[in-house]
Amino acid sequence: MYLKPKTLDDAVSLLASTGGDILAGGTDYYPALGERLPQRDVVDISALGEIRGISFEPDWIRIGGLTTWTDVIRTRLPRCFDALKGAAREVGSVQIQNRGTVAGNLCNASPAADGVPPLLALDAEVELVSATAKRRIPLAEFITGNRKTLRQPEEILSQVLIPRTIEGAASTFLKLGARRYLVISISMVAVIVRSDQAGRVAEAHVAVGSCSAKAQRLHHLEEALAGCDAIPGIGRHVTAEHLHPLSPIDDVRATADYRRDASLTLIRRALEACVEGR
Q: What's phi and psi for 211, nearest 5 deg?
């Protein structure tokens, strides 16, 4: 059965009563089916305007779960969101960006999901809504592994929340693939650098995707960068040892060793881009 609720309350009620599959942009859902037909009821939430769009609150910036990547690109956002905008431009083709949703990218939980590293770097949290409860979870905990999350079948990821703590910081997203566009990444990095009045790194956030079962922050590297001069040459502070938390694999796109080397180079370049012209 195909169901298309008009409100979030109706949607979570239908999920609870039918145990159906959520359909949003459909850019992951339909390819996963292949030539098969859906085996369960389909709850199409694409009409839920209440969870689409970007809004500004005193302490948070809210990105509705149904916000598309094109919405992200077109919305005026603080400088620290430049990495997220850069990732949005890498999510498939323009047609995919027009349909694919932020929540879908997160719930799909691919290790190569472009939106995850920049949102991790922004300290994002996700809001999950069911017919009986609402809960918030840090994105770093929400994705638990390759295609695995803490979302329960009856829950909808309604919002992504970003704290308004580093809005003046510079940010960069870099991605390496076998070709320039429409490619699954070999490695990708999102970096945010906030400088103090003395021109030193007050805060650095570094997240890497496609090099582990899930994208992750490199906290030891972030600590090592704190207090460094925020000037060209900052990339030299990054060493191979800082990438030890990553666990890349060998596959058809690249070897594990190549992924590590590529990630090291991308992080250095992203840091340089963040301090350029400061």
A: -125, 15
